[in-house]
Amino acid sequence: MRQPQMSLRVGLPVFVVVTQLFIVVLFALFVTYDDQTDAKLQGNETVAMDNALYKDYPFFADIQVMIFIGFGCLLAFFRQYGFGGMVFNFLTATFAIQWAILVQGYFQFSHDGKIHLGVTNLINAEFACAAVLISFGAVLGKTSPLQLLVMALLEIPVYAVTEWAVLTYLKINDAAGCILIHVFACYFGLGVTFVLYRPRLNEGHAKEGSSYQSDILSAMGTLFLWVFWPSFNSVLALKGDDQHRAVLHTFIGLSASTLTAFALSSMLNRTGKLTMADIQNVTLAGGVAVGASVDMMISPAGAYALGMMGCAACMLGYRYLTPFLARRLRIQDQCGIHNLHGLTGLISSTAGICAILVASEEVYGPSMYETFAHMAPVEGDPKLLELQEQIPGLQPGLGRTALEQAIYQVAALLSTIVVSAIGGVITGFVLKLPYFGSPPDELCFDDDLFFEVPHNYEAPITFSNKCRPTTEDSAA
User: What's residue 466's pLDDT?
Assistant: First the structure.
C-alpha cells in the first residue's frame, strides 16, 4: 500500500502543481479572446443577441452534463469504488479540457500566433475530453489518479494530431465524431489495458461487483447521457436541416436500442430477468450507431435499424466477446468500451460509408454539396456557379465523387484504429513505470486506497422496523 500512498502524497500534488503552472503560462502567452468575446471588436452596430454564445452555449451546457454527471455516475457502478468512478472522472475531465484547449489550439493558430478562445473551442475540447473518459473505462478501478492524469496528458496530443490529420488531409464527414471520438477512444483504451494486463483479475476479484445502490447511481448516469446525447451528436452538424436530422436520428436510434436492449437482456438471461449492466450500457448503443451518418438522409427507418443493430452487437459483445478478449488476447476491458464504442462505432462507420455511396442530388437536392462539402465542384467549374445561384454562399469543394469520398472515409477509419492502438500501447508502457502508484491486484476497485472513506462504507444499508412509525408513535 505504500507505493500508492506515496503517489498521492507526493506524485499527485507535484503533477497537478507543475502542469497547472505550465498551463497558465501557456494561456498567458498564447490564449486570447475570439471575435465574439473581445470587447474591442464590438461596435454600435453589434447586436448582442447575435453573439455565438446564444447559439452554442445550450449545446456546451448539455455536453457538460454528459461529461461530468453522465460519465461520472455511469462509472460509479462498483460497490466500493463509487468515489473513484465519479471523482476521478471529475479530476481527469477537468484536466483534459484545459489541456485540450491548448493542444487542439496549436493546430489552429491564427496569423498572430494566438489561440482565439470562444465557446466553440470549449466544445471541441469537450469532445477530446470525451475520448479520454471513454478510454478511462477500460482501466477503471485498476489505476491510480496520477496514472489517469498522465494518460490524459498523453492521449490528448495523440487525439489532436489524429483529428488534425484526418480533417485536414483526408477531409471526411464525421459530424458526431464516430471515428474521431468513439473508435479512437476505444482502441486507445484497449491498447493501454493490453499493456497493463493483470492475469489474476481474469479469475475474478472480490470487489469487482456492484451493489443495489451503485447500480441505481450508474443507471442515473445512463439517463443523463441518454437525454443529452442528441446535443452531443448534433452540435457540430451544419446548422439547419442537417442539425435537425441529427437530433431526430439520435433520438430514434437511442429509443430503438433501448427497447431492443430490454428484450435481449430478458431473452439471454436463463431466468428471464433483466440485467442492470445491460440497461446501463447497451441502451446507449443507438447514440453511437447513428453517429457517422447522423446528419445524412438515412431516413427515420434507417436510424431505427441502426439503433437495433448497434444494440444487438453491443449486447453480444458484452456476453461473449469481452470474456474472450480477457482470456485469449490479454485485453481486460473493464467497462466493455469495445462493445459500446468499438463494435458499434464500426457499424456506424460502415453505415456512414454506405450512406455516402448512395447519396445523390435526387435525394438531397442542391444542399447535397453542403452536407458533403468535399464533393462540391471545384473553383471555376460551371456547375459551381449554377449551384451558387440556388444556394448563395456555397463554397467550392474538391469535386470528389461519392466513391472517392467513401474511400477516404475507409482510410480515416483504418488509420485512426492503427494510430490510436499504437498510442495506447505506448501510453500503457509509460503508465507501467513504478512512479505512478499503480494499485496492487488485491486493492483494485477499492476507494479505501485513495480516499478518506466513511467507517461503514463496506456495510450494506439495513432497514429497521422502527423506520415505520407504530400506532403509539403516531398517537404521540
Answer: 47
State the DSSP H helix or E strand holding residue 116, giving kind and residue range, or none if neither: strand 115-117
Q: What residue type is assigned to position 171 of the chain? A: K
What does the radius of gyration of the chain's CA atoms come to, in whole angstroms?
Answer: 24
**In a domain? residue 68:** yes
Give the Å distances, CA to CA, from 148 to 11, 144, 189.
Answer: 12, 6, 11
Q: What is the CATH number of the domain that holds 156?
A: 1.10.3430.10
Is the separation of the CB atoms in 359 and 296 below 8 Å? yes
Helices and strands in the chain, H and E counts: 21, 2
Query: What is the block-wise mean pLDDT of the chain (476 residues), using blocks of 10 residues?
Result: 64 94 97 93 85 94 97 95 96 98 89 90 97 97 96 98 96 95 98 95 87 95 98 96 98 98 96 95 97 97 98 96 94 96 97 96 95 95 94 94 97 98 98 90 92 77 45 39
Q: Give the C-alpha separation, 426 to 147, whole Å.
A: 13
d(CA 352, CA 344): 12
| Residue 101 lies inside a defined structural domain of this protein | yes
Phi, psi for residue 197 in degrees, rounded to 5: -55, 135
Q: Give me the helix-helix angle, 402-431 and 344-357, nearest 10°.
A: 160
Close Cβ partners of 58 (under 8 Å, ≥ 6 residues apart)? 231
Q: For residue 287, tell me if it sits in a domain.
A: yes
Q: Which residues, other chains included, contact 53 with Cβ-Cβ below 8 Å and sequence gap of 6+?
A: 36, 119
Q: What is the pLDDT of residue 302?
A: 98
Distances (CA, A) of 283 to 75, 245, 255, 294, 332: 15, 21, 8, 18, 22
The secondary structure of residue 144, as a DSSP letter, is -
Q: Domain range for residue 336?
A: 2-37+50-358+401-449
Distances (CA, A) of 392 to 313, 366, 372, 387: 43, 11, 16, 8
Model pTM score: 0.93
Domain count within the chain = 1
The alpha carbon torsion through 301, 305, 307, 313 (nearest 10 deg) reads -170
State how far the alpha carbon of 463 is from the alpha carbons of 79, 210, 460, 476, in Å.
18, 19, 10, 22
**If DSSP codes are grouped into helix, strand and coil, which group holds residue 453?**
coil
In a domain, residue 416? The reply is yes
Give the C-alpha separation, 221 to 66, whole Å.
Answer: 8
**Number of residues that make up the chain:** 476
| pLDDT in the model for residue 475 | 38
Within 13 Å, how many C-alpha atoms sit on residue 310's CB side?
A: 40
pLDDT at 4: 62
